[in-house]
Structure formats: structure tokens, C-alpha cells
Amino acid sequence: MAFVRLPRHNAHSVFLAFLLTIAAPLARGQAVPNPGENIPYLVTFGAQGATNWGDDDHVQTMFFLVPKKTVGAVYIRVFDPECGGALDERRANWNTTTEFTVYGGTGAHSNADSRATQPKGSYKAGNLLMQESYTADAETDQKWATFGPFDPKQGEWVPDFDGYVFKVVVEGTAGDDGNLYSFFLSQQLDDNVPIEGGNGFTYEYSFRLPSQPGARVHLYPFIDKNVVSIKQSNFDADADGRLLLYSVARNGQPGQLSGDDGWTESRHLIDPREKGLSLDMTYIKKGASPNDVVFFVTDQYDKALPFFAVPLGGKPKYQYKVDIRFK
Q1: DSSP strand E in 190-320: where?
Q2: Backbone angles phi, psi at 21, to 5 degrees
Q3: What is the pLDDT of residue 170?
């Protein structure tokens, strides 16, 4: 594996750090996707992949948060990074190359292009730490590959998260097949050992849906204190199911789902009670056919909001309001 080494808190950041802390014990936040999301795998197609197979841009960017108190090296592990095995999606003959690149340092997260929903401009900003390309490879088929070790401080310091953030850009550089894979942020080179308070997040999610009819996928966009309204956008859902939004203030509000090879969107006002918490966007699958989709959520200024693997503030539960008046 190629290994390249290149040589003030406000109230909101403190509150967000607190939410990250209390969310950590709820589930293994280092697994991306997290079991609570019920997403089988992430997916990235090769550069020549047809968009009607469910990937709009052939690039996926994931971020990993390492709390500042973390001691010792950290590792980013990838399950099944090759494209050509039992889990992957073949178009004709296996011909796809997928590049995994880890970035840290200034710009890895703070650069606006790093958080955009399309790979443009400086989306690869930051210090290049490690890079590896995979094709069809029996040695990594349904096995783990490890990037690291990294000193936590090689990530970018992000005050709002009270920790260091690493960025992984996954890009299908050639071919037309779909590469299915997952991540784990670990304390160890050869095992998945969680880091207390760690989490994974992304600003655009490209993933495989479960094949079981009625299966529920949960996406957890974080609603910060400045959000007034959101727009959820999704691509190539094939109208295969329903999308419902849950929170402390809403109990299954419908959202729009896209058809084949196209985008759709729906807008939703934010209740003050939802600020500083995650929403639960629940996708209920209808059919049994495999399907890959893309989701992102933006605020009233078209700024993308992060999906956390473990929802900040816990999984939202609707709180009924009972209005009892006595005469």
C-alpha cells in the first residue's frame, strides 16, 4: 500500500461537542455505514458508469472525526475496497479502478469545496496522507484494507466538532462497474476497535439500499442553530418506496422520492425544537430489486448539511404535544 507523509470555543461549538460526546455510546459511530442506519454498503461507480445505475458523479467523500482527547495512532479501515468480487456490481466485464485517498490538515474539511455535493474545484484540499488504487483483486475481496497509522493531529482541527477531521475521497477513476464497500475508524491496524467519541459523516451519501421489501434505512442530517428550512434531494430512487421525516416535532412527514436516473427534491420548514439535533429521514423500501441511490440535504442558503453515522443528540423521537384546557 502506498504511504505518503507530507510534512477558541464558542457556545455553539461547545454544545455540538457535547452532542458528539453523548451520541458516542449509542452505537459504534466508527462504522460507516453504521448498523443503526441499516445501509448495507456505500457505492462508487467507475468514471464511465451509467448514471441510471445510481451514482451521479462517481465520487464519494467521507469524513472521520477523532476527538481531541484521543491518545495514540488511529487507522481508517476499508472493507472490500477492490471492485470485482462477490459484493460488487458488474456492468459487463470487470474493468473498474477505484482510488481511495486520505487527506488531513488545513482545508480537508474547512475548504468549502470539500463539503460541496459535487466534486468540483478544491474538493481534494488538504494534505495528502495516503493513497491507494484498487481493481479486481482476490486478496482484498470481502477483506479489510487499512490506511494509517495517523497521528490524530494530522487531521484538520475543527473547533465546532472539538476534534480532528480526516477526509477520504473515493473516486472511480476508470471503468463502469459499481464498487460496494464500507469503513471503520479504528484504534488498531488489524482489527475494528472503536475510538471513544469518534464518528463518521458525509455531505452527500451514495449507497446501496437493502433488498428486503419493507426494510427501513435511516439517514441523520444534523440541523444546526442557524437552519430555518431544508431541501432534501435524492437521485435515482426508482420511486421504490416512501420517504418519511421524523424528529421531536414531526411524525412521519412525507418527502419526495426520485424516479429513474433523475433528481427530485422536497422542502421542509424547521421547527425551533429541531435545532441542535438530527432528523431521521426514513426510506422504506418497496421492492426486492437491488438499488443504489444518492442523497444530500441543504439549508435555506443551499449549504450542505452533514449526515452523521450516529445521530447527534440520539435518534430523534417524536414528542406529542397535548393541549389540555380547563374552563
Answers
A1: 199-202, 205-208, 216-219, 222-223, 229-235, 241-246, 251-255, 263-269, 277-278, 280-285, 292-299, 307-308
A2: -65, -45
A3: 98
Q: Give me the pLDDT at residue 317, please.
A: 84
**CA torsion, points 110, 113, 114, 120, in degrees to nearest 10?**
-160
Sketch the domain layout of the chain as residue ranges: 11-308
**Residue where the block lists cell 430523534:** 316
- Per-residue pLDDT, averaged over 89-98, amounts to 96
Q: pLDDT-derived band of residue 313, with 50, 70 and 90 as boundaries?
A: confident
Nearest to 183 by CA among 171, 209, 201: 201
Provide the residue type at 132 as one letter.
E
Burial 239-268 (b: 16+ CB within 10 A, else e): ebbebbbbbebbeeeebebbeeeeebebeb
Counting Cβ atoms within 10 Å, is residue 151 exposed (0-12), middle (13-18) or buried (19+)? middle
Q: What is the pTM of this model?
A: 0.90
Cβ(295)–Cβ(265) under 8 Å?
no
Question: Which set of grid coordinates corresponds to residue 56?
Answer: 451521479
How far apart (Å, rounded) are the C-alpha atoms in residues 119 and 139? Answer: 30
Residue owning grid cell 435511516? 218
- Residue range 5-15, pLDDT digits in tens: 333 445 455 44
